[in-house]
Amino acid sequence: MGKRKERGFDVLASLHWPVCLVLGLIGFIGIQYGIGWLWGSSSHPFLAGFAKAVSMGLDRPLAWFALFVCSAAAFASFLDRRRRRRLLESQTGMDSLSSMDWRSFERLAGEAFRRQGYAVKETGQGGADGGIDLELSKDGQITLVQCKQWRSQRVGVQTVREMYGILVDRGAAAVKIVALGHYTSDAAAFARGKRIELVDGHALLATIKGIQARKEPDGALDHPLVFVGGLAVCLLFAVAPPKQQPERPAIVPNASLPSSPAPRQSTIATQGAPAIRTASTPVQAAASPSQKVYKADPPMSNEELRDWEKRNREAMKILEKTTPELETAPTH
């Protein structure tokens, strides 16, 4: 099989679907809220222009597009996960193994290893440029796998030698060759005593039968409701408006009001003279520190007015008696 060229969407869909949703949400937030902040002050004309275009409303369509692509990749990953489980559970014998194409055979082998506790990565490098179809990870060890879906041809020693060279070059822990048919005696002899495991069709079928006998229930990530719930949560985060920080009210310092000068009251000390109260003189009331409030006296009654005039006349008489006359300056 020749090397497969995977597109970016295929690489994204090969991840677990929760990872795709998280990447979509991160991309949505980063595009809508991060580009303008990150590139807005850039000196590069292209980046600054792009940030300006984003700030004018281009960010929202791009953000939703990134979220849509990641959500579609998550859906494809979810369907592929369920398809692999059904592929393994539907195998009944060598005839069903022989009837599938090479791509399905590779997926079946990957699912069988996944059910045995391996983390499986499909490299898509099967062929003359590497010969690695799967990379298995378990307990920190890397195992390389090549799948050969040859119905009539046996796997020869040349293929085993090539895989051993890759094992030494990559520094892997072991190599597994999974074939639908059998291996030549030379290939089996070369692999003996080395970190090479030759898996033929009957051994693969026995492994599949053992997995089917365990009747493992679907995991949480394989349940449709879990996927729909994860997608709904992701969309709710995207459509929820960002929290607006409450604006702090501007603190305006209290303007100092010019204090009006207190009315100057002249008190004339007299010997036993009663206090003189002018009817038009306002009385200052208690005021707040910022301003002064003045209140006028209530109007006097006729009796109070006559008493006030009488006391003024008496005070004037006392002033005339007690005030010395001014000497007239001599004229020259």
From TrEMBL:
<dbReference type="GO" id="GO:0015666">
    <property type="term" value="F:restriction endodeoxyribonuclease activity"/>
</dbReference>
<feature type="domain" description="Restriction endonuclease type IV Mrr">
    <location>
        <begin position="98"/>
        <end position="206"/>
    </location>
</feature>
<dbReference type="InterPro" id="IPR007560">
    <property type="entry name" value="Restrct_endonuc_IV_Mrr"/>
</dbReference>
<feature type="compositionally biased region" description="Polar residues">
    <location>
        <begin position="278"/>
        <end position="291"/>
    </location>
</feature>
<dbReference type="InterPro" id="IPR052906">
    <property type="entry name" value="Type_IV_Methyl-Rstrct_Enzyme"/>
</dbReference>
<keyword id="KW-1133">Transmembrane helix</keyword>
<feature type="transmembrane region" description="Helical">
    <location>
        <begin position="62"/>
        <end position="79"/>
    </location>
</feature>
<dbReference type="GO" id="GO:0003677">
    <property type="term" value="F:DNA binding"/>
</dbReference>
<keyword id="KW-0812">Transmembrane</keyword>
<dbReference type="Pfam" id="PF04471">
    <property type="entry name" value="Mrr_cat"/>
</dbReference>
<dbReference type="GO" id="GO:0009307">
    <property type="term" value="P:DNA restriction-modification system"/>
</dbReference>
<protein>
    <recommendedName>
        <fullName>Restriction endonuclease type IV Mrr domain-containing protein</fullName>
    </recommendedName>
</protein>
<feature type="region of interest" description="Disordered">
    <location>
        <begin position="245"/>
        <end position="332"/>
    </location>
</feature>
<feature type="transmembrane region" description="Helical">
    <location>
        <begin position="12"/>
        <end position="35"/>
    </location>
</feature>
<dbReference type="InterPro" id="IPR011335">
    <property type="entry name" value="Restrct_endonuc-II-like"/>
</dbReference>
<feature type="compositionally biased region" description="Basic and acidic residues">
    <location>
        <begin position="303"/>
        <end position="324"/>
    </location>
</feature>
<keyword id="KW-0472">Membrane</keyword>
<dbReference type="InterPro" id="IPR011856">
    <property type="entry name" value="tRNA_endonuc-like_dom_sf"/>
</dbReference>
<feature type="compositionally biased region" description="Polar residues">
    <location>
        <begin position="256"/>
        <end position="270"/>
    </location>
</feature>
